[in-house]
Amino acid sequence: QVQLVESGGGLVPPGGSLRLSCAASGRTISTYAMGWFRQAPGKEREFVAAISWSGRNTYYADSVKGRFTISRDNAKNTVYLQMDSLKPEDTAVYYCAYDQRQFYSGSGSYYSSDRTYDFWGQGTQVTVSS
User: Fold this and answer.
1) Which of 15, 51, 64, 115 could in theory staple to 68 by disulfide, Cβ–Cβ 3.0 to 4.6 A?
2) Distance between alpha carbon 105 and the CA centroid of its chain, in Å?
3) Under 8 Å between Cβ of 55 and 69
């Protein structure tokens, strides 16, 4: 079992930045892919970004490409989501997720599916509003 705890959410004006963190415990993340998803009120959960176990490959939803950056610090067992140029439509609860296929490198479509992931955090609220 792995426990994931997100943090770093909050209220930010349009054009602002936030950095979300996802701290894992109970198992190392160093050999597993990680993802970020979000869910806005009344909408389905959607893919935001993912990073391969090696960190060499990253994947982004078109809606956040060029504005968000996913990264990982295996020494801290933590994954990050740097969010810049935030827009009101980025308002959602953000969740991190863990793919327990060790050393597995999939395609972009693999990582963008929520069915890929086995463990989820409780989420952190991001609100973009003036």
Assistant:
1) 64
2) 17
3) no
Q: Which residues pair with 37 in a beta bridge?
A: 47, 95
Query: What tokens does 32 get?
Result: 């597993």
DSSP 8-state assignment for residue 103: T
Render each residue's pLDDT in the chain as its tens digit; 130 residues: 899 999 999 999 999 999 999 999 999 999 999 999 999 999 999 999 999 999 999 999 999 999 999 999 999 999 999 999 999 999 999 999 999 988 888 888 999 999 999 999 999 999 999 9
Rounded CA separation 83/38 (Å): 13
The Cβ of residue 103 has, within 10 Å, a number of other Cβ atoms equal to 10
Q: Is 51 helix (H, G, I), strand (E, B) or coil?
A: strand
Using CA atoms, how far apart are residues 109 and 7, in angstroms rounded to an integer?
26
C-alpha distance from residue 79 to each of 63, 69, 117, 130 (Å)? 20, 11, 15, 28
Q: Report the amino acid identity of residue 21.
A: S
State how far the Cα of 110 lies from the Cα of 33, in Å rounded to an integer.
11
